[in-house]
UniProtKB/TrEMBL annotation, chain A:
Residues 116-248 form the TonB-dependent receptor plug domain. It comes from Gillisia lutea. Pfam families: CarbopepD_reg_2, Plug, TonB_dep_Rec_b-barrel. The keyword Chaperone does not apply. This is SusC/RagA family TonB-linked outer membrane protein.
Automatic annotation (TrEMBL), chain B:
It holds the Pfam family SusD-like_2. It comes from Gillisia lutea. Signal peptide: none annotated. Keywords: Lipoprotein. PROSITE patterns: PROKAR_LIPOPROTEIN (PS51257). The keyword Calcium does not apply. This is SusD/RagB family nutrient-binding outer membrane lipoprotein. InterPro entries: SusD-like_2 (IPR041662), TPR-like_helical_dom_sf (IPR011990). The lineage of its organism: Bacteria, Pseudomonadati, Bacteroidota, Flavobacteriia, Flavobacteriales. It comes from the Bacteria.
Length: 1030, 499
């Protein structure tokens, strides 16, 4: 009792000691009178502060000083400063921020900066907008939303990889994927490459074009995302280093908020359906030259017409299924002023429109923020993802082409004999694998367990001094299993093939910086802050692969069940270490002029020691010209105007082990080592990209209209080109070296407008426009073309660039032509002559421009929101159509019985005289079915100038109004929604979907976009769901 | 400002102390050996195996039809009728020699120096001479100095050098090797079991080197001037110091086990099994009358080298014709004979070849009786190699003495025997070109059927060289000599032009 008294007394004394405090309370509402939660309220120049609760109320101890200033600030609203005076209760009405002056964005290292201070373009996308699209892979939710950002998904199947390229290709052969950063911690967005499998050593190989592993950024739960900031230029790299040379996707995840505990639950139920199928002819039977032959391996449809009354099966349509997906998310959040928490769980069970494919994903995440005392605070997140993905093979080994090739007179869905073994349309055929058998009996699974831990500690011992340190671990293991069934085409000669690769990635990050804020100068007009820091990145990936053949017991898919004598194993360890030291200086003058200078030095383990240290600087300038006295008068019209310019440089290192070649075992010799195919690169140095960016931002008519325009130009020299093909006489086939120069420039426009805004109705528009140019300025030595062999998918067309041309071109062969450009015809048979002497540019995938247009309509509690995606120009290679044409399946082969004359002139010696001989030799395609490929060579299937308008997503939702919710007593928020994805596509492309990507995101360089070879179209999806908060 | 400097210093120190230089020593793969991590005794096996199983295999495969040992089942197969791949440069001894085989020999030479082991340097030089020789004999001018040498940075547009220079280099490499094999070395060639050719015996390697030297000097019979003028005495001298018994034959013996690479490449389970469908009509008929007698005398080697056709008898497919509708069962398969069983050997150089070289040199220098004696030793050696019974060998030799004898003996006799003894050796193509594909030398030799008439219109037009691979054309065209098939395939190599 005594003790307690003493304690109270002490407390009382203590209060007396600091005394001069008083309780200030109040409520914050918006202009409609609705309470606003989460508004920060603090006393200026102190550490006393709080945030408003659910009812918009706040209470805090303020110094008993009438001069003290109460600051009320919230994102999107003007910050208000109120002198305390003698009042103890403050009711504050927030005013929406019309000038964008105080807009804050998350930049590198999780540092929040005022947008107006930035010398470069930055775009933020709200997590809600991404989650609303209901895409499992949140990267797809970014498509069409940001100028200068190209998102390309390989297919609409669950777990399909998506690649994202910011401001064009900056690396010829390396990855052009940006760095993904979550809460300041870089995470891995790797895509498993098939080179890790043991069978890639043994000769039963498969390639990146035949499979599609997820890009691992897809592990992030979209429901956990608060916002995504896209840092487009290498400016981002000043603080993240070379990893961010292709830009950065900076993700901030949700945090708990002080106040009452909240529970949020949402769900979504979706159905996906393929609605477009390739059309094939069902007039002519199998055979050649007009004679029917239904032989076992005969899958060319150049026979006689089918007999009357032949029964046909729609094997393609019968194959695809309606795919059902359900997703549930729940989160618990809350906390006190000093510490907040949020834990969430999410479960997705997605089916694919290809039978047996699917993705089951579990996300568990937690975030805790704690303020230990006045100068020490911590932020810790920990999350776990499990992703179990069943996929299918693609391209030439995938189901679509085989479905088309399968005789339509046979019901492919009947793929098993009554005895349960493989049934074929004839005796066992090697010509094509029944796709039903393929997906049901072959296995293609990847199972990932991923853990991420991110700890950030902030110490501010002095008002002008802050230390921020961060440690992160990103650890995941993926078990990839591929089984070719003993009866499958690929597996049958081997008694089945088993391949498994366990890939364990462990990335450690240590980042640290000191921030110093010197006193303001010149009447507080000049403010500065300085950051000095360093970072250590330690990447380690180990793969252990095993392969075997000849399954002993049936239906048991394990290496232990294969023939011991066939076992193969392959290990690969990739280590890479990076260390960086950086400094930055931010200075501003009178809220008008902002200058940012950065410098960074990196050390990389992947470069020769003599070249492994490199420095690169950046500078950015921002000028808010509306702060000029002369312009202050027109604020009603031009409320905000900014000019910006920046220049930045960034280096890039090489892939690990690029310097010295290593030895391999040879499978064609009795023993001993020989070299792999890649030669030594003893003088490798970092590649350097220098970029310039100029922009203007305007906010007009009280923020009803906003414009942000950017021009950029970046040049990369000393490109570290991997796998540049060599003259074999050098001793090697491939080499990594500094070679060549590439250049990218572009224009990006972003526009936001609110044409209508009334109490009950509003209409918002968000538009973006992107135009890019690129050029391959030079390549080394005699090399005139650079191509990535993974993109050489089909026939004589590949993604190749020639010096002087764009980086996004196709190369291929052209016809021989005379000086007038007319096609030369072989006088002996009337066929055009293909010039195979050189790979020339035959198309360019780069669009003239792309545009994204988001419209949001709100009427009372209803809202409708849709994103239209426009593309104009850019070529697509319709390899599927070539395949169908030369197989006699395409409808264009229906008029085969009419002889035709190819337009051109005969190569008879007169072709370059004034009077070339016009071709008059008719070709009988009916009797010469091989002529189809002569008159329609591969490059003629590059469809030029493909445009599209695509309704990417549309969401209609209803929010239950407060009046309804209050009656329930327990519901805080409630809404229901319907979302449609890819519902509508208008295009001049003759194939299924021009968004095709023939490769996975594992392919570097210019990638595989615009290659359509057996690609699935994007399915139309419809979601319904609800969100409730308690 | 002092404070800032202090803080900056702390930041820099903080990370520099945490990562001294060796922090970055993670750029060598620890799952595969690298160039810097292996001593020569771990490299010798790879160097030998790749010389034989990649370079020589490919060199042999591409000329199997050209020299009419084998015929494929399809008509107008490229190497038989000299079309398609041969005219587009899609022909791959080039890659096998430069990428798979030569770099290993460069390493042996380099590592030999590093480890003060002249014997390894010598083996590197011998193998290098062997590969360079095989390569220049198919192409003429080739890349010599500017291919990978284990030390310098890669030259990505390596220059070509004349065949004459390459020949000088081959002789030089062999001479140096012979000297170095007599020097002391701290590391034995077979310390790690890697010398799969000669088990670490320097004397045997020297004999091999002399044999190769004899082979290359012997190619020069049309050269009458300059440093490389034909010198039969030098050939005889080298041959006398060369391989002197079948025990010393340079060969890789396969085990015929389950692994593909343990099988002779042209055998049923080897990786080149589909490249040798049938024996050729020319070869089979030659063996039925290898002494070219009015009354044919069947060579005892016929049934050992050539498998019996399924439907009985020994019949070859006419080169370039393919099966042409006939049943494959009527013909003798390529797989399965003495040279093409899973556990057969691939021969680099044999005692019999050395004797035939010596015989030719003696014959050309007027020593007919010496030539005749060597000729018969060569035949005996080859027959013993094949396991022909001594009675049959003696009978065959007696037949020669009885029907041909020293008086009727000539170049043709030597070359026929050398042709039979060198089955699957790319060296045969050199001989055929040196002999101008003469049917006086090779009785019954005819141009293949379906021959590429646009490049070889006349009856006496024969293929003389190979096209450079298209990669060279794409990436090193400024250095590459004219690669027009009309010129390259028809122009005789330097050693085949008399001067």
């Amino acid at each position: 009792m005594k003790k307690r008294l003493l304690l109270i007394l002490l407390c009382f004394l203590g209060m007396q000691a600091f005394a001069q405090e008083r309780m200030v309370t109040g409520k914050v509402i918006d202009k409609e009178g609705i309470p606003v939660a989460g508004v920060s309220v603090y006393i200026k120049n102190t550490n006393k502060g709080t945030v408003t609760d659910m009812d918009g109320k706040f209470a805090l101890n303020a110094p008993d000083n009438s001069e003290a200033i109460l600051v009320i600030s919230s994102l999107g609203f003007d910050t208000q400063e109120l002198t305390l005076g003698t009042k103890n209760t403050f009711n504050v009405t927030l005013v929406e921020n019309l000038e964008g002056l105080d807009e804050v964005v998350v930049t590198a290292l999780g540092i929040k900066r005022e947008k107006k201070a930035l010398g470069y373009s930055v775009t933020e996308v709200k997590g809600a907008a991404i989650a609303e699209t209901q895409r499992e892979n949140f990267v797809n939710g970014l498509a069409g939303r940001v100028a200068g950002v190209e998102v390309n998904s390989t297919s609409g199947l669950p777990g399909a990889s998506s690649s994202i390229v910011i401001r064009g290709i900056s690396s010829l052969s390396g990855s052009n994927q940006p760095l993904f950063v979550v809460d300041g911690l870089p995470i891995s967005n790797s895509t498993t490459s098939t080179s890790i499998f043991a069978s890639s050593v043994s000769g039963t190989s498969f390639e990146n074009r035949g499979v599609d592993f997820t890009n691992r950024a897809a592990d992030i739960n979209p429901e956990d995302i608060e916002s995504v900031t896209i840092l487009k230029g290498p400016e981002a790299a000043a603080l993240y280093g070379i990893e961010a040379a292709s830009g950065a996707v900076v993700i901030t995840t949700k945090r708990g908020k002080a106040g009452k505990a909240r529970i949020d639950y949402s769900n979504s139920f979706r159905v996906d359906r393929i609605v477009e199928y390739p059309d094939i002819q069902q007039t002519y039977d199998r055979g050649a030259n007009g004679y029917t032959n239904e032989g076992n391996e005969e899958l060319y449809y150049f026979g006689e017409p089918y007999a009357e009354g032949t029964q046909f099966y729609d094997n393609v349509k019968n194959f695809f299924q309606d795919a059902y997906t359900q997703k549930h998310n729940i989160s618990f959040s809350g906390g006190s002023e000093k510490s907040q928490y949020r834990i969430s769980a999410s479960h997705t069970d997605a089916e694919g429109f290809v039978p047996t494919t699917g993705l089951e994903k579990l996300n568990l995440s937690s975030a805790i923020t704690a303020e230990f005392n006045d100068f020490l605070s911590a932020d810790v997140t920990f999350d776990y993802t499990r992703s179990d993905n069943d996929q299918t093979f693609r391209g030439s080994g995938g189901p679509l082409l085989h479905l088309l090739l399968w005789p339509s007179t046979d019901d492919a869905s009947n793929y098993l004999t009554p005895g349960g073994t493989r049934r074929d349309y004839a005796d066992y055929s090697n010509a094509v694998e029944n796709p039903f058998f393929n997906v049901n009996k072959n296995i293609f699974n990847s199972l990932t367990d991923r853990y991420k831990l991110n700890t950030q500690l902030t110490a501010s011992p002095l008002k002008w001094l802050k230390f921020v340190g961060q440690v992160g671990v990103d650890y995941f293991t993926t078990k990839n299993t591929i089984v070719r069934h003993p009866e499958s085409n690929t597996g049958k000669d081997y008694g089945g093939i088993f391949d498994q690769a366990l890939v364990t990635t462990r990335n450690l990050t240590f980042q640290y910086y000191t921030q110093i804020t010197p006193p303001k100068l010149f009447n507080d007009k000049i403010t500065t802050d300085i950051k000095i820091g360093s970072a250590v990145y330690d990447y380690n990936t180990f793969s252990a692969a095993a392969g075997g053949q000849d399954f002993q017991a049936p239906d048991l898919w394990s290496i232990n069940n294969t023939d011991l004598a066939t076992h193969r194993a392959f290990n690969n360890l990739t280590e890479r270490r990076l260390v960086g030291a950086f400094a930055s200086l931010n200075a501003s003058y009178d809220n008008m002029l902002y200058l940012t200078l950065t410098g960074r030095n990196d050390w990389s383990s992947t470069l020769p020691k003599k070249n492994n240290s490199f420095f690169y600087p950046s500078a950015g300038l921002s000028f808010i010209f509306t702060e000029l006295e002369a312009l202050k008068g027109i604020k009603d019209v031009l409320s905000y105007g900014k000019l910006r310019a920046s220049v930045a440089q960034v280096g890039k290192d090489a892939r690990p082990y690029s310097i010295r070649p290593f030895y391999t075992n040879s499978l064609t010799t009795g023993g001993g080592f020989r070299y792999g195919f890649t030669g030594p690169s003893l003088d490798l140095k970092p590649e350097m990209t220098t970029s310039y960016e100029y922009g203007i931002e305007l906010k007009l008519f009280k923020n009803r209209l906003g414009i942000d325009a950017t021009y950029f130009n970046k040049k990369s020299v000393d490109q570290i080109v991997q796998n540049l093909r060599l003259s074999y006489a050098t001793g090697f086939v491939l080499m990594t070296f500094n070679a060549g120069e590439i250049q990218n420039e572009g224009i990006e426009l972003q526009l936001n407008a609110t044409p209508i805004e009334t109490d009950n109705f509003s209409w918002d528009i968000l538009a973006n426009y992107t135009k890019n140019w690129s050029e391959l300025v030079s390549l080394p030595g005699d090399v005139s073309e650079f191509y990535n062999s993974d993109t050489w998918l089909y026939g004589n067309v590949r993604v190749g660039s020639r010096v002087g041309g764009s980086l996004t071109t196709f190369t291929g062969y052209d016809f021989e032509r005379n000086e007038q450009g007319e096609v030369l015809i072989n006088p002996s048979n009337g066929l055009p002559i293909l010039d195979t002497s050189e790979w020339i540019v035959v198309g360019d995938r780069n669009p003239d421009f792309t545009m994204g247009l988001t419209n949001t309509f709100r009427y009372k509690d209803f809202s409708l929101n849709f994103l239209l995606d426009f593309r104009v120009g850019g070529d697509v290679y319709n390899a599927t159509e070539h395949y169908l044409t030369t197989r006699g399946l395409s409808k264009r082969t229906l008029d085969r019985e009419t002889p035709r004359i190819v337009t051109g002139v005969l190569k008879d010696g007169n072709e370059n005289t004034g009077t070339p001989t016009d071709n008059n030799i008719p070709i009988d395609l009916y009797r010469n079915s091989s002529y189809w490929s002569s008159i329609y060579p591969h490059q003629s299937f590059i469809e030029k100038d493909i445009n599209w308008v695509r309704l990417r997503d549309v969401t209609f939702s209803y929010n239950f109004p407060g009046s309804v919710l209050e009656r329930t007593k327990f519901l805080r928020t409630a809404s229901v929604f319907v979302t449609g994805t890819d519902l509508f596509l208008l295009t001049n492309y003759s194939g299924l979907d021009p968004v095709a990507n023939g490769n996975s995101a594992a392919v570097g360089g210019a990638g595989g976009a615009g290659l359509d070879y057996g690609n699935f179209p994007l399915p139309r999806g419809l979601n319904i769901g609800m969100r409730v908060g308690f | 400002m002092k404070l800032y400097k202090y803080l900056f210093a702390i930041s820099i120190i903080a990370f520099t102390t945490s990562c001294s230089e060796d922090y970055f020593d993670v750029n060598g793969s620890v799952t595969a050996p690298t160039t810097t991590s292996l001593a020569p005794q771990y490299r010798i096996q790879g160097a030998i195996e790749n010389t034989v199983a990649t370079a020589q295999y490919r060199g042999a495969r591409e000329v199997l039809g050209v020299v009419q040992y084998g015929s494929q089942n399809t008509a107008a197969y490229y190497s038989e009728s000299w079309n398609t791949f041969l005219t587009t440069g899609s022909y791959f001894l080039w890659q096998n020699a430069y990428v798979y085989a030569l770099p290993n020999t460069a390493d042996l030479i380099y590592l030999g120096k590093q480890y003060n082991a002249p014997n390894y340097e010598a083996v590197g030089k011998i193998l290098r001479a062997y590969i360079l020789g095989m390569t220049t004999d198919q192409y003429g001018d080739i890349v010599l100095d500017e291919t990978y040498d284990s030390e310098s940075s890669l030259n990505i547009t390596p220059k070509f050098q004349t065949q004459q220079e390459v020949y000088s280099r081959i002789i030089q490499l062999l001479d140096e090797a012979i000297v170095q094999l007599d020097e002391a070395s701290p590391i034995g060639l077979n310390d790690e079991g890697g010398d799969v050719l000669y088990g670490g015996d320097h004397e045997k390697w020297k004999k091999f080197a002399y044999s190769i030297k004899a082979r290359y000097l012997n190619h020069l019979n049309k050269k009458s001037s300059g440093e490389l003028a034909y010198n039969p005495q030098a050939i005889i001298e080298a041959a006398e110091k060369g391989i002197s018994s079948n025990d010393l034959n340079a060969l890789i013996q396969y085990g015929g086990g389950e692994m593909e690479n343990d099988n002779q490449p042209f055998s049923e389970s080897g990786y080149g099994s589909s490249r040798f469908d049938y024996f050729s009509d020319f070869f089979v008929e030659l063996l039925k009358n290898s002494l070219d007698l009015e009354t044919p005398y069947e060579d005892p080697r016929l049934t050992i080298i050539v498998p019996e056709a399924v439907n009985g008898g020994y019949h070859g497919v006419v080169t370039g014709r393919g099966l042409n509708g006939e049943s494959g069962d009527d013909f003798s398969l390529g797989n399965g004979g003495f040279y093409t069983q899973p556990n057969s050997s691939t021969y680099m150089m044999t005692f019999s070849e050395v004797k035939f070289i010596e015989a030719e040199a003696k014959f050309r220098s007027g020593d007919k009786s010496g030539a005749y004696a060597d000729y018969k030793i060569g035949i005996r050696a080859d027959m013993e190699k094949l396991g022909v019974g001594s009675d049959e060998i003696n009978a065959y030799i007696q037949k020669i003495d009885a029907t041909i004898g020293e008086s009727n003996f000539g170049l043709s006799e030597i070359m026929i025997q050398k042709y039979i003894a060198n089955v699957l050796n790319p060296e045969t193509w050199v001989d055929m070109r040196r002999m101008d594909y003469s049917s006086d030398i090779y009785p019954g030799l005819k141009r293949p059927e379906n021959v590429n008439l646009s490049i070889f219109p006349n009856d006496n037009d024969w293929i003389q060289a190979m096209m450079y691979e298209y990669n060279e054309e794409d990436r090193n065209y400024e250095n590459m000599p004219n690669n027009d098939p009309y010129i390259r395939l028809t122009t005789p190599l330097w050693w085949n032009v008399a001067d």
